[in-house]
Specification:
Blueprint lengths: L3 H14 L13 H11 E12 L8 E5 L2 E4 L8 E10 L3 E6 L7 E7 L8 E7 L2 E11 L5
């Protein structure tokens, strides 16, 4: 919580120096920067993962590669099961799904890019001959993803 004294100091600094003042209409960001900021305001909320098929009928260890790095999903996913995720990533990122296949090379199951515009809950399908998965997602402001 901001104290009155701190709020007063910030107000004085903003008026005196202008460094903390918000840009006015003549100082608006260029279109490209505005679009980039808008994209950062949208996040992909991952709600659930569904395992339709798994490799060799056994348990899989799926993970997503996104711009932020590797996100491990639930361990030991078997066909016909689903699990909650409740994770969020910036909208517009590419999502690549892999299945951990140690000590062999990991299986690539597909790549999707989620748009930056909210359009309700969607299901993203990933799959290959070694397994298939679906993610229940939506695009929302970061504060809505929990």
């Amino acid at each position: 919580m901001m104290t009155r004294k701190l709020a007063g100091c910030l107000a004085v600094a903003a008026v005196a120096g202008g460094a903390l003042a918000m840009p006015g209409p003549s100082q608006a960001a260029p279109d490209g920067a505005a679009k980039a900021e808008s994209a950062r305001a949208s996040w992909v909320c991952l709600y659930r993962i569904y395992a339709d098929n798994t490799q060799d009928g056994g348990a899989d260890e799926p993970y997503l590669m996104v711009d932020l790095g590797r996100f491990w999903g639930p361990k030991d996913m078997v066909a016909g099961t689903s699990r909650s995720l409740n994770k969020a990533f910036p909208a517009g990122d590419e999502f690549s799904l892999y299945e951990d296949d140690w000590p062999d090379a990991d299986d690539f199951l597909g790549k999707r890019t989620v748009p930056t515009v909210s359009s309700g809950v969607k299901v993203l399908h990933f799959g290959s001959s070694t397994g298939s998965y679906a993610y229940r997602v939506s695009v929302r402001p970061r504060s809505y993803c929990s």
